[in-house]
Amino acid sequence: MNEISSNEKELSANQQRILIIGVSGLIGRLLFNHLTKTYPTKYEVLGLDQHMNISPRYQFKNYDNFKAETIVPLPLNKFFQCDITDREKLHQIIKEQNIKIIIHLAALLETHPDIEQISYVNIEGTKNVFEAPDIHRIIYASSGMVVHGYLDRQPYLSIFNETFDDNTILKDLRKITVADDPPLPDLTTPGRTVYSKGKIICEQMATDIVKNNSKSIICARFGAVNIEDKPETTWNRSLWLSHRDLCSFISKALEAPLNISGIYFVMSNNHRLWVDLEHTKRDLGYVPQDGAEKI
Ligand SMILES: NC(=O)c1ccc[n+]([C@@H]2O[C@H](COP(=O)([O-])OP(=O)(O)OC[C@H]3O[C@@H](n4cnc5c(N)ncnc54)[C@H](O)[C@@H]3O)[C@@H](O)[C@H]2O)c1
């Protein structure tokens, strides 16, 4: 063996192997791109999904400005096709690939037509991921939608209705925190109800698992991520999450000591942001660089 190949071997032995579950989705592709480009020697990134084609959210929602060259090719030898509800196959892949770190993004979205399927995949599939053998850390994609129920109440209702008076209310706005404000699901449509209740159940599952286990699970209540990387023009911009801030959060969550587990809001620093990021900043050193401006 020559000197170069022996160095390469040593380098790859020091790499940490990350499995992105839901890698064919919008966030999965963004993170695969970010981690492989930013940390070519620190992390080896593998992906798993039920299909290799990019997800409908990635393809259709952004059809007008869809550019094939923006899609990062996923090498075949780094991709595993598996449905997360197939517990045996999922655990076998994780064991065989000696995975210690998982970023779990796979889910059926609130727009999926089969409500029962949303619940089954998102809860049972996530249970299978959480119970995978020999994992040190899981970063789980929860959602800001788990507190959308507060949008029925003032002062958050006025943000939703866009009647919020920035001059008088913004400086006194009490932001929703993980510690003091229990989740309140979005009940506006059956899909959103099942989707957000499923995320709440999985956050609770994560909390229970880490109590009795050395595993770390970081539940990230992501804000609204879109391929254009621009805040929308509705109230939803208050919960925008830019690609840069998403990637920086993931880097921080991967680097955090393994005794850190918990539930964290992950949004950009938006005007009218109504959830509290202090906990995320304090525990993980997350510092959002972007923010939706006032319109
Ligand atoms: N994009 C956002 O604004 C946003 C906001 C908050 C939370 N989230 C969460 O982040 C995660 C990723 O969202 P996204 O926007 O990339 O969605 P997406 O639909 O683009 O990606 C989800 C991926 O999960 C895969 N998947 C679904 N069911 C599966 C199964 N049974 N087995 C294996 N893979 C399966 C899909 O094929 C898809 O590639 C989801 O959990 C979502 O709930 C997204």
UniProtKB/TrEMBL annotation:
InterPro entries: Epimerase_deHydtase, NAD(P)-bd_dom_sf. It comes from the Eukaryota. Residues 18-147 form the NAD-dependent epimerase/dehydratase domain. Transmembrane segments: none annotated. Belongs to the NAD(P)-dependent epimerase/dehydratase family. This is NAD-dependent epimerase/dehydratase domain-containing protein.
